[in-house]
Amino acid sequence: MTSIHTSGHVLGLIAAPLHFVHGVARRFRHRREMNRLLGMPDYILKDVGVQRHEIQREAVRPLW
Question: Per-domain residue ranges for the chain?
Fold first, then answer.
């Protein structure tokens, strides 16, 4: 195994968990935004173009 191949493998081992953590953090921010929208009145949600049941469905999706 060459050093380039080995370093690529090591980078892959590091990148995979970081990619997972980044994805969970992104979904956490998304959920926080959905919960913020749930606190708004229906007329504002209509202006934004979403319905309350759509936001509720997104807010309970698993983070992983």
Answer: 21-64
pTM: 0.61
User: Could you tell me if 30 and 47 are in contact, meaning their C-beta atoms sit under 8 angstroms apart?
Assistant: no
Are the C-beta atoms of 18 and 11 separated by less than 8 Å?
Answer: no
SS3 assignment, position 7: helix
- 34-53 burial code (b ≥16 CB/10 A, e <16): beebeeeeeeebeeeeeeee
* Average pLDDT, consecutive stretches of 10 residues, N- to C-terminus, the chain (64 residues): 59 83 88 90 92 88 71
11: left (phi over 0), alpha (psi -120 to 50) or beta: alpha
